[in-house]
Structure formats: structure tokens, C-alpha cells
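Model: You mentioned two targets. I'll fold them one after the other.
Researcher: Yes, keep them separate.
Model: Target one:
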Amino acid sequence: MNMKNELEHGVSPAPTEEAAPAAPAAQPHAAPAQPAPAPTPRRVRRVGTFTMGLCLVIAGIALVAGMFRPGWDMLNLFKLTPLVLVALGAELLAASAAKGDTRLKYDFLSTVMCFFLLLAGFAGVVGMKVAEYASPENVQRMETLESEWNTAVGTALAKDKNVENVNAYVNYGFSWPEHTFVPETLAGLNGDAAASITLAGEYEDVQAFLAAAQPVVQAVKGCGVEMPDIYLEAGGPEGALYTLDICGAFDHQRAVTDLAGQVQMQQWVEEAGCYMDADEAERWKAENAAAAREEALAQREEELAAREEQLAEQQAAQQERESELAALEEELAAWQAELDGAAA
């Protein structure tokens, strides 16, 4: 009612007080957050370390075996180097199958070292073989064998009147794996022992040369070496030279008189100053003749060039003289014109 009266008299009603908001309810105190546990680091396994260790062991055993067992052929061990790849692949498969939480890491340096260790081991063994071969004892033994071989051949052919000259020697050089040891006796030389023999006199044909060479070859074979290299030479008709080289099992198992196909006949070529077989002499003569023709042609070309140069010089001198003559004629014509003018 009062509010109605106030509205009627133009009086604004008094504002009513609003209720104050209620205070928020107290929240319970929250516990602090716990940090997450750190992840466990994964183990790392290097693939290739085991293979490198295995190669170290093999290389060491090879070096020891090479020093204490000289007769052991180390080349067969070197042929097994591809097994390094097999060992490395097996190690990789085994590590992959049983890795679990382990992280694999390829040990590249160890893999490379595996190959270098095997190569170094092989080089060391070969180096020891070379050092052993070149030892003073072996050098003295080789000198003794060569002296024995030279004495044996010289003694066997000393009384043979068909022999003019003899040179016996030994060609024994180090090579892997055939020649790594110096033999103890002459029988171990075989093809490393050689004899160069010159027969006296001249022989009409190849068969006569072979007939004279047969007893000489048999005498050399009886000097303690089963299959030595034997080189024979003798004079032939018209300054020819017969040569025969007997080497290897095939030649030694045949009679000397059956080796006519291996005899070479050479002719003395005066221009070359040496012996040559027929084909070689013809080829040399043809090449020499061609070279002589080329030289003569080159000389003629030089002479022609010189003559052309001389002719060019003469032509130049002729042109110079003609120019001088033309100048004199012009000068003479000028004087004549002056004389005519003066007379007029």
C-alpha cells in the first residue's frame, strides 16, 4: 500500500538490499604430485667384437705355428679368410635372436680390423719364410749345392771330346709356396739345376747333332739331378747354329734322337751381328730393307726441300735484280727527258 502511494506521489521506492553471496565451501588440501620414474637405459651390444677377438686368436696361432712348424703350409689358412664374413654373420644372427631389450650396434672398426689382422698374420708368416730362406745357412747351402752340381757336370763331361764348353749353374729362387726351403741334396733341385753345353765341331744335319748330343745328355742326367734343364748348341753347315733346350718331364722321358722337332736352326746375320732362325732373319731383313727405303725416301725429300729452297732464293735474287734494272731504266728515262728539254 505504501509503495502504491509512493508511486502515485512520484516518489521512487527505496532500493532493497540484496543478499550477500555465500562464501565458498572450504576445499580439502590436495597432495603434491609424485615425479614419474626415470626410464631404464637399454643395454648396448657391439656386433663384431667377438669376431675381432676370434681373428686375433687365429692370427696369433698362425704366427706361432709359422715359427715353430716351418713345414706347415700357411697358404691354406689364408684361403679361409672368407670365413671371417661367416663368423660376423653368425654373430649378428645370434645377437639379433637373443637381443631382448638390448640395442645392437655394429662395430665397424672391429670388422675392418678382422681383415687387417688376418692379412698382417699372413704377411708375417710369409716374411718369416723369406727371412728363413735368405738366412746365412741357406745361402751357404745353396752355394755348396751349386758348387757340387758344377763339379759333377764338369767331371762327367771332362773326357768327352765332343764337348767344347760347359756352364753348370742353379736357378733356385724364392717363390710362395713352391720354393720356400733350400733342398739338402742335389736330388731336390730337379729343374732348378741347369747346364749350358756347347758341342765341338760342325754337324751336317739335325740327326747328326742329336746323335752327338745323346751321350752328353745321359752323362748330365747321371750327375745326381733327375730332370735338369739342359741347353745344347753346336755349329751347322754354312755358319748355321743348332740349339736344343731339354726341360720338363716330357722331354726327359723321350730319347734325344726323337727331339728333332724341338731343334732350332739359326743363321748368322752379319748385318745384325747375331744368330737368327730363318723366319726371324727374313723378318729382320724385311724390316731392315723397309727402314732403309724409308731412310732413302726421307733423304730424297730433304734434298728436294733443299733444292726448292735454293730455287726460291734464286728467284728472289732474280726479282731483286729485275727491280734494280727497272729502277735504272726509269732513272735513264728521266735523264733522257732532261737532256731533250735542255736541247729544245
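Model: Target two:
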Amino acid sequence: MSIAPRTRLALIGCGLISPAHIRAFGSQKERVELVACCDSRLESAERAVELASTVMRSGDTIEATTDFNAILKDPSITALDLCLPHHIHKEVTLTALRAGKHVLCEKPLALTPEDCDAMAHEARAQNRVLMHGENMRTASNVVVAKQALTAGRVGTIVGIQATYAHWQSEALNRDWRTRPAESGGGHLMDGAIHFVDVLRQLGGEITGVHAMTTQYRPELGAESEDTAALNFRFEGGHFGQLFASHASRGRGASPVVTVFGTEGCISVEPFDGAGSVVLFPHEGEREILLAEHNWQKTFDNEVSHFLDVIRDDVPLYSTPEDGRENIRVVLAAYESAKSGREVSLPKWGGWRR
């Protein structure tokens, strides 16, 4: 049996999140060839290549470049991984799709639902894959918790709580991240959106949000919130909560997520915990559904799924629709925080095929 050639891929954007993506490529080096690392700053691209050379196949040639157009024109490069400032996601994705490339685009997919619409429409028009790069969508701990909920292990869901609180380094909040016009907002759009996705995976679609935001650390962006508390209504009738902060030192609250049900609860613990997913049934002893997990593995899973989709026609799990809905919830939260009122989210029927 012949072995399919590796997918030739280029990394576009070599900033803060790119090392996690590069290590994920390394975990899939028998299926993917990282051809180039491209950034507007050559020194950033060179640092990315230096790391990539330690995790990819020995002997692979990886180019450091600032020439995005050359990558677009290379027909042997069939896929791009975009790790770029939020405000250029739409423009670069559309350009890449029109050049015939499959695209993995880091979250948030864009800044508005309308931008997501344009991106998804172009992917369909070009018959290319556009994957929403949300590492929590394919995280093993969330997937295992979802499977248990689908199997009815906690009965009917009555509520769900999530916490995403830590101390954000100033080095992670520079340049465009401090400007809401480019980042899309503060912690809610940049960090807490991860757990909006988790809440939607585990709790279903969100139909209403009431939010409060505040700021403790103006050095992270004078116009941006670093702390928020959100209450949600879900389509199933249950309620949810999310506390998110970039201004909390220490380990943060544990567990990260708890789903409360009529027959028990499931807790999704912090990464590297002794029990990453734990079931607490109403009778009997607790059950560890997943013993260990770590942050890098979420990116490994993300890249692996992207390759499954473009190489083996596996159905896309982290979709543009999900990226659009996450953004819609965050924007509703900002509207609520400004008005002081709950904001309803009418059910969205999806795109016409």
C-alpha cells in the first residue's frame, strides 16, 4: 500500500501563539511538511524556523520569509495556518482561499459575524476547508465531558459554570492586542472566548447574556476590559455563568468547568490535574473519565483534526459556524455590559447551502 505524500503547509504569522502550533506540526510530522514560516518581521520567522527544525523531520527544509505572495503562488503548498492579528483574519483568509489554499485560522475567526459570513461563503465557493482554530473545540477533556453528557451520565442539565482566570503577562498584551479596533475587545474576545466555545459545546446554544466588565490592569490596554462576569440563558432552558479575568494571580479557580445535572455533575479540571474530567454521580463513588491532559495537547488535536479533514475527508468539527456563534455571544456580552441589560440572541439558522 502506497503512503500518501505529506501535506505541504506554511505558517503565516510567527507571534506568541505560533510555538504551540509548530509543536503541534511536530506531533504530526509524518503527515505534514512545514515548508515555510512567514511573518512581516523576518526575525520572528527565523525564530519560528529555529523551533520548527527541532520538532519536524530531520532534513526538512523550512524557509523563513516575509513574502506571503510567494507562498500563495506556490501550488505545492496546499494549506495555511494563520496565526495573525484578529483584524486581518478576514482579509488574509479570503486571499488564501482564492489562491486555492485550505485554511486553519486562529480564533477569533474574525471581528464580526458578517466577516465570518464572507469567509465561510468564500470557502464554499472555492471548495476549500476553512477550519475555526479553536483549540478547546478539539481538547480531549472537553470532548470526553461532552461524550458523557450526550450519554446522559448527569441526567438533565440544570446549570453550567466556567472560570478562566489568570495573570496575563504584559508581554502578551502589546501592540494590536491593546487596541480594541484591531483585537475586537479585551479579555472576552481574546481569552474568555475559549470558554464561550466550551460552554456551547457542553451546554448547547446560548440564547441570552447579561454581562458586567471592569478593568484592574490598564497596562494591558487602556480601552479594554480585563475582568468580566457573564450570566447565560441556554436553548435547553438551563442557566450558565462565566467568570473571566486577566488580573488574578495564582492557580485560579478550580475546577475550570462544572456541569450540574439532575443525576450528577461533571467537572473539567485545570490542565495537568490528577483528574482532568471527573464524574460525580448522585449515587456511588466519583469516576475519573480522563486522568491527564495538558495545554499543548489541545493544539496537537487541533492540527491533527485539520489534517484529517483535508486529507481524509473527515467531517469538520471546528466549523466557521462555531466561530461565528462564539463572536456573536461575545459581542452580545459587550452590548449588555454597556447597556446594563440582558441581550437576547435570536436563534441563527446557519448559512444557505
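Researcher: Noted. Anything on target two?
Model: The longest strand covers residues 157-165.
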